[in-house]
């Protein structure tokens, strides 16, 4: 079921904005961070994507499969420069 609401642009400083009725925000679950995308002659609003969403679960599954080891073991050992030049406090 779609809901259509007609509204107007309002001036906000040097920009313009729209007031979005709470019923629409609740219907799509928008909160603070949103993304705006132009698609043809439409402006699409959606909840901001969380690029790392689900990473914890993926890391947990990798650990269960013993698939969480470094691919380059040399990167782990560091170099003589790392050992001699860094000062740890």
From TrEMBL:
The keyword Lipid metabolism does not apply. Residues 66-89 are annotated as: Disordered. Residues 7-50 form the SpoVT-AbrB domain. Keywords: DNA-binding. SMART domains: SpoVT_AbrB. It holds the Pfam family MazE_antitoxin. It comes from the Bacteria. PROSITE patterns: SPOVT_ABRB. SUPFAM superfamilies: AbrB/MazE/MraZ-like (SSF89447). One of its GO terms (molecular function) is DNA binding. Residues 66-75 have a biased composition (Basic and acidic residues). This is AbrB/MazE/SpoVT family DNA-binding domain-containing protein. It comes from Candidatus Viridilinea halotolerans.
